[in-house]
Write a sequence for this structure.
């Protein structure tokens, strides 16, 4: 496998590190606070999905050792962004549709215009860190987050980038709440840095996990080791059960949790599953010598 | 990743009519004309669009989700492309679908929000993400393989086509259906009106008098196939996807980088991936939207990449003929390039009243021209600073 996970990040209220995804919170107040973290100059004129994504992406890049004093330390031209989101700009599109219906086109605010574009989150992440490699937005329903991780790996194998920051984000906006009929849903983002093995080695970064298998339908374990952490809507750890509908963020959140599990010395491999009929699944393993 | 990727099927629905033949003959005849979208309450300065003659009557729904024009165009064009490639039952079941979609089922949602939606539905309030277009195509073809929606705004289907080609090169699939589809959308047109980027006359790329873009609706689909698989079953190829590259300006959420640095990089990397030099390119399908800045920046980029060859390098002025088809634009560009390579000619552009002296490129208006070099380049750009470039070569080229 020529790609490896080297960093993870999150922007989920109350959570401080990946391990928090798998355990009850201890009650300290060191976790992410959206009321503080999503404000300030850099957040102006951005929709909620973009703000959450920017926090998670910076967290993951820092974790990977690719952000020093807020500046991206890698080669921007060879770094890709992949964003998975299903409800990302739903609030902007709904508000534009309502404004046109009520006041006509003249009522639209030009500052909100970029967010009617389906790829605005990925655009903002690229702008923030000057990431000028491939910039991909995936809106694939339940499997979207796992798909995004798979595309990131494929992009590295195809030689299109040396490093990729993958973001899964769903904003807890009024439009989403109306859509889900008030059902609980995630208001947050998760991010993962996937990197080519030679690039990781050249900069001496630690390998954290390897995406050993991805497929529709349950994967057969690529290693002889048993599955130690199962994240599945029908069994094991159910992140959607804890955080509500995670939609396009789910797969990336699962990957962050999996890396937290492996980091903490958890036994066996990590199997993440999203969606049904067919389910999409991904197997994460500890990096071997080739990684 | 190795291996050659061929285009073995093409389907299209555009303002020029239904089918790839209608597209090609319509382009040779000078393209279509925009007409007004009837939407009195939106108060748009320009409500012009290059509209398809009619929206297909089916499919009306996918499971509980009513389908508007975009997904219906997608199904029609997908059926044509798959038939064209000669893929039957079992081959369709195993066919991955990778589409580029910007607005998805947008019109259905917009109509519902304004109370004009009349389709009976068991679950009328259910919104669906953009993936419904790919899901509708997969369902119509009986595909049980992966279906993916790339949401890269106006460069979506060029990105999707590259993803599809990479899947084949990576050995993930032998054959992939790729492309895109869009219907008319109030939000998209409204946004461009508000930006002052909607031309009230027609879409006039590279014309000094241009005042913005004019959208078009429809769908374009291509069957991509590994050369080995195509050879084994005796499939005919229109063209080869010889190289493709992506870049991002990472500069502004909507405007292109005036320096064109990363547009130029994408073009050069796509040529490198194809193993070709600038002098091997016989025509370019530019992004060419008719917005003031895009056409100048892109012309500058083409001069930087092609140098003096630009003076003899004809552009296929596609958006002047079918409008800016948003998420489908890249797929329409690649489908047009494939058809042009097969025919060996470049269709002439509609009339340009006054060529923009800041756009030092060749936009032929005096009849079709032969393609004198083996490759056609397709550019596709989007909000978010997303740039994609695809290089296709003629099927007869021995590489």
């Amino acid at each position: 496998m020529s790609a490896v996970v080297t960093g993870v990040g999150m922007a989920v209220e109350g959570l401080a590190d990946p391990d928090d995804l798998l355990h009850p919170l201890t009650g300290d107040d060191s976790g992410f606070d959206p009321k503080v973290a999503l404000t300030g100059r850099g957040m102006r004129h951005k929709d909620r999905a973009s703000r959450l994504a920017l926090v998670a992406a910076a967290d993951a890049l820092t974790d990977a050792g690719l952000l020093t004093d807020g500046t991206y330390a890698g080669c921007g031209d060879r770094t890709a962004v992949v964003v998975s989101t299903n409800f990302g700009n739903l609030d902007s599109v709904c508000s534009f549709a309502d404004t046109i219906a009520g006041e006509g086109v003249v009522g639209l605010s030009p500052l909100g215009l970029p967010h009617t574009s389906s790829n605005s989150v990925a655009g903002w992440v690229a702008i923030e860190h000057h990431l000028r490699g491939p910039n991909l937005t995936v809106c694939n329903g339940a499997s979207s987050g796992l798909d995004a991780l798979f595309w990131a790996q494929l992009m590295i194998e195809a030689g299109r980038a040396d490093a990729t920051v993958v973001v899964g984000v769903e904003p807890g906006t009024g439009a989403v709440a109306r859509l889900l009929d008030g059902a609980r849903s995630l208001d947050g983002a998760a991010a993962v840095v996937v990197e080519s093995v030679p690039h990781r080695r050249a900069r001496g970064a630690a390998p954290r996990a390897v995406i050993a298998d991805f497929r529709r339908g349950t994967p057969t374990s690529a290693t002889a080791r048993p599955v130690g952490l199962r994240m599945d809507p029908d069994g094991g750890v159910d992140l959607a059960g804890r955080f509500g509908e995670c939609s396009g963020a789910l797969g990336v959140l699962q990957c962050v949790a999996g890396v937290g599990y492996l980091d903490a010395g958890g036994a066996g491999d990590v199997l993440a599953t999203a969606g049904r009929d067919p389910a999409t699944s991904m197997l994460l393993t500890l990096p071997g010598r080739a990684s | 990743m190795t291996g050659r990727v061929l285009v073995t099927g093409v389907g299209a629905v555009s303002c020029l009519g239904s089918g790839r033949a209608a597209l090609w003959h319509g382009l040779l005849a000078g393209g279509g004309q925009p007409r007004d979208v009837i939407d009195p309450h939106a108060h748009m300065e320009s409500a012009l669009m290059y509209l398809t003659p009619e929206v297909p009557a089916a499919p009306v729904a996918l499971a509980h989700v009513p389908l508007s024009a975009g997904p219906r165009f997608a199904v029609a064009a997908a059926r044509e492309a798959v038939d064209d490639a000669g893929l039957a039952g079992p081959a369709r079941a195993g066919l991955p679908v990778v589409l580029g979609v910007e607005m998805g089922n947008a019109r259905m949602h917009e109509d519902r929000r304004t109370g004009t939606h009349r389709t009976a539905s068991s679950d009328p309030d259910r919104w669906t993400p953009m993936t419904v277009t790919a899901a509708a195509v997969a369902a119509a073809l009986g595909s049980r393989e992966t279906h993916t929606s790339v949401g890269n705004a106006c460069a979506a289907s060029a990105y999707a086509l590259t993803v599809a080609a990479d899947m084949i090169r990576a050995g993930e699939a032998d054959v992939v259906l790729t492309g895109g589809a869009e219907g008319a959308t109030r939000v998209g047109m409204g946004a461009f009106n508000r930006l002052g980027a909607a031309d009230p006359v027609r879409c006039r790329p590279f014309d000094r008098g241009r005042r913005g873009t004019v959208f078009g609706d429809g769908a374009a689909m291509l069957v991509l196939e590994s050369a080995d698989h195509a050879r084994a079953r005796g499939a005919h190829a229109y063209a080869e996807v010889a190289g493709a590259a992506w870049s991002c300006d990472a500069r502004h959420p909507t405007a292109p980088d005036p320096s064109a640095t990363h547009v130029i990089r994408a073009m050069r990397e796509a040529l490198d991936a194809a193993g070709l030099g600038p002098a091997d390119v016989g025509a370019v399908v530019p992004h060419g939207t008719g917005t003031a800045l895009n056409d100048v920046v892109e012309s500058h980029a083409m001069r930087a990449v092609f140098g003096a060859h630009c003076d003899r390098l004809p552009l296929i002025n596609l958006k002047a003929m079918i409008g800016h088809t948003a998420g489908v634009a890249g797929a329409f560009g690649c489908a047009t390039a494939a058809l042009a390579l097969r025919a060996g000619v470049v269709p002439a552009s509609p009339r340009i009243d006054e060529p923009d002296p800041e756009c030092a490129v060749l936009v032929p208006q005096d009849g079709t021209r032969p393609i004198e070099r083996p490759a056609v380049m397709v550019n596709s750009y989007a909000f978010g600073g997303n740039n994609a470039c695809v290089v296709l070569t003629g099927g007869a080229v021995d590489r």
About this structure: The CA atoms of residues 6 and 240 of chain B lie 4 Å apart.
